[in-house]
Design brief:
Largest sheet of chain B: none
InterPro entries (chain B): BPD_transp_1_N, MetI-like, MetI-like_sf
Shape of chain B: flat
Subcellular location (chain B): Cell membrane
Distance between the termini of chain A: 27 Å
Largest sheet of chain A: none
Strand content of chain A: under 5%
CATH topology of chain B: MetI-like fold
Membrane topology (chain B): Multi-pass membrane protein
Helix content of chain A: over 70%
CATH class of chain B: Mainly Alpha
Number of helices of chain B: 13
Largest interface: A-B, 40 and 47 residues
CATH superfamily of chain B: MetI-like
Order of helices and strands of chain B: HHHHHHHHHHHHH
Number of strands of chain B: 0
CATH architecture of chain A: Orthogonal Bundle
Order of helices and strands of chain A: HHHHHHHHHHHH
Family (chain B): Belongs to the binding-protein-dependent transport system permease family. OppBC subfamily.
Oligomer: heterodimer
Keywords (chain B): Cell membrane, Membrane, Transmembrane, Transmembrane helix, Transport
Number of domains of chain A: 1
CATH topology of chain A: MetI-like fold
């Protein structure tokens, strides 16, 4: 190899990890399907054929229809948009909060650091799932609130990881040199620290997405997340459970889709971690 | 040890106080009162209700009143179930949820530690890959899917076990406990595998082997004590997760526990019930986190003397 930078090295290792590559491949297909849902879905997600009712998979409806005669495949495709959107946006929110918090705490050190990390410790010990439910009950089940609420919960670990990384970096020569040149704190964070911790951030972000999607599924399953007529995979599973005795395909296909996605994300995330940090790949 | 313990308890009190206050005021700013029912109530009835539940007083007075009650263990009346207090409802639901959580943790520990230790000892063999594949399934199949699938297979198709209930039919506790326990078994399997691998490479294990101990003694007496510390630290946060899991499992299997009460209260906007259970859950989680941290400290000989 001519170029031995961290990223090209990591890419090389990632390419050799079959499970991770398969996971990545599945993810790309899923994202494309979700983006193209309005064009590739055979029916609209709300199109009802009431005469049909719940019908098992057939050539007209590849995955069958639900009780209202809506095409399940189309609903899964449209549901992918919401589920993946929640996964990515809420992770983004968590990323922004966690990275800023961790960089400031780690770089500032001293009292600022100990107060900031104390807050993280305390928040770790609280039942956040309950607060999300509380927020959804109080302010109504709003998609943007859901993003914010989930993101506000998932940033804690990110803050810890970033802080640890920054503490490791801040006594290195290039940071000291930048300090000597009088670089402002903000550009120190942006230009010197952030690029050096992108690896761990990328890994943890990939592993946060499935957690966020699980959380959304959990809330939607309880009826506290996405509200009709919108549907996520969580709401599809909820609907499937209600009618699984007679129409088991309504539970099984959304369930399989959701599980495959989580598998893909976890495999890809694990692979990325091993590729970027070969030290941890042994256990 | 005792100093750490006292410090942590002293920290927990203001935290719980803050949780109670924040929750109280969050609920106060919520739009819509608890008596905005589907059918309108006459103004006189509404006035009497508000008076009976002290909703006419200023927010500050209500807050002071609530906090005074809280210290005495009185969480106020339920808005939706007249004549029942929140404390009473928690007392009814708690034993059920505790029993469910206990079985789940038991299943998770036995299954998880067994699979994890096995995988670590037989590293990179068939007996490592299979348990870890099972663990991956446990992590990727959420509780709200695992529960219904188990019901579909064992309850509806095979008709082996009851599909719902708790303590009414023989065997109806099996599926809920398995559902809740399986996800944690997966995490525990991964953690104990990682922990064991780390310990098995250390010098004191080589010493133990060198002095001629049987492999079983080395594993059980020496390696597991250190290798399972991550599992012990995980148990505290796991309790918080179990709670969320109990919301789902109790809803799926129609179990009259605290989790289902909470979800119902959330739907009914039974504000005193939400407030009371939130504070109660927080107190429980803070307590269990404390307990598991202390256990992990105690198990680790390096920190025992500190």
């Amino acid at each position: 190899m001519k170029n031995n930078s961290l990223w090209s090295d990591a890419l090389y290792r990632l390419r050799r990890n079959r499970a991770a590559m398969l996971g990545g491949f599945v993810l790309i297909i899923l994202v494309i399907c979700a983006l193209l849902a309005p064009w590739i879905a055979p029916y609209s997600y709300s199109f009802q054929d009431l005469n049909l009712g719940a019908s098992p998979p057939s050539s007209d409806h590849l995955l069958g229809t639900d009780i209202l005669g809506r095409d399940l495949l189309s609903r899964i495709l449209y549901g992918a948009r919401i589920s993946l959107l929640v996964g990515f946006v809420a992770t983004g929110v968590a990323l922004v909060i966690g990275v800023s918090w961790g960089i400031v705490a780690g770089y500032m050190g001293g009292r600022v650091d100990s107060i900031m990390m104390r807050i993280v410790d305390v928040m770790y010990g609280l039942p956040f799932i309950i607060f999300i439910i509380l927020l959804m009950v109080i302010f109504g089940r709003n998609l943007w609130l859901l993003f914010g609420a989930i993101g506000a919960v998932e940033w804690l670990t990110m803050a810890r990881i970033v802080r640890g990384q920054v503490i490791g970096l801040k006594n290195q020569e290039f940071v000291l040199a930048a300090q000597a040149m009088g670089v402002s704190n903000l550009s120190m964070f942006r230009r010197h620290l952030l690029p050096n911790i992108l690896g761990p951030i990328a890994v943890y972000a990939t592993l946060t997405i499935p957690q966020v999607m699980l959380l959304e599924g959990f809330l939607s399953f309880l009826g506290l997340g996405i509200q009709p007529p919108m549907s996520s995979w969580g709401t599809l599973i909820k609907d499937g459970v209600e009618s699984m005795e007679e129409y088991s395909w309504l539970l099984i296909y959304p369930g399989i889709t959701f599980t495959i996605t989580l598998f893909a994300l976890n495999f890809f995330g694990d692979g990325l971690r091993d590729a970027l940090d070969p030290k941890t790949s042994d256990n | 040890m005792i100093a750490i313990f006292l410090k942590r308890i002293l920290l927990a009190i203001p935290v719980l106080f803050a949780v109670a206050s924040i929750t109280f005021f969050l609920i106060k700013i919520a739009p819509g009162g608890p008596f905005d029912a589907d059918k309108a109530v006459s103004p006189q009835v509404l006035k009497n209700l508000n008076e009976a539940y002290n909703l006419d007083a200023s927010n500050w007075e209500q807050y002071v009143g609530y906090m005074t009650g809280l210290i005495q263990g009185n969480l106020g009346p339920s808005f939706r179930f007249p004549g029942r207090s929140v404390t009473e409802m928690i007392a009814t639901g708690l034993p059920v949820t505790f029993e469910l959580a206990f079985y789940a943790i038991l299943i998770a520990l036995v299954m998880g530690v067994f699979l994890g230790v096995l995988a670590a000892l037989k590293r990179n063999t068939f007996l490592d890959f299979i348990p870890m594949a099972i663990a991956m399934i446990g992590i990727c199949v959420p509780t709200f899917l695992m529960g219904p699938l188990l019901v579909l297979i064992f309850g509806i198709n095979l008709e082996l076990l009851p599909v719902s209930g708790w303590g009414q039919l023989p065997g109806d506790k099996i599926l809920p406990s398995l559902t809740l326990g399986f996800a944690y078994a997966a995490y525990i399997a991964r953690l104990s595998r990682g922990g064991m691998l780390e310990v098995l490479n250390q010098d004191f294990i080589r010493t133990a082997r060198a002095k001629g101990l049987t492999e079983r003694m080395v594993v059980i007496k020496h390696a597991m004590q250190g290798g399972l510390i991550p599992v012990v630290s995980f148990l505290g946060p796991a309790i918080a997760g179990l709670l969320a899991g109990s919301f789902v499992v109790e809803t799926i299997f129609q179990i009259p526990g605290l989790g289902r009460f909470y979800v119902e209260a959330a739907f009914n906007r039974d504000y005193t019930m939400i407030l009371g259970t939130t504070i109660f859950f927080s107190a429980m989680i803070v307590f269990f986190n404390l307990l598991s941290d202390l256990a992990a400290l105690w198990l680790n000989p390096r920190s025992r003397d500190a």
